[in-house]
Amino acid sequence: MAINPLNLMKLGGLKKRFEKGHPKLFRFLGAVIAPGMPEGTVLELTVTKPGEEPVTTNMRITAEDLELIREIREIIN
Questions:
Q1: 44 with 14, same domain?
Q2: pLDDT in tens, 22-45
Q3: Same domain, 49 and 22
Q4: Which domain holds residue 5?
Q5: Looking at residue 1, what is its pLDDT?
Q6: The model scores a pTM over 0.90
Q7: 26 backbone dihedrals φ, ψ, rounded to 5°
């Protein structure tokens, strides 16, 4: 699969813009993900919309997820 270099540059710009607007999220993810997430790690996400009850889901990290993360890091770096 070929990646258009212009789209890759655009993606980098969008990431920087999102990171600027949500710096705590990226610091958190860096602190949690940087040291590595072993297979079996559970990620939990709660979304609370104004005036609504929170909705929570979770996922257990698999070996396939770790491989996907490794491939994405290679592409980005």
A1: no
A2: 999 888 888 887 778 899 999 999
A3: no
A4: 1-35
A5: 61
A6: no
A7: -70, -35
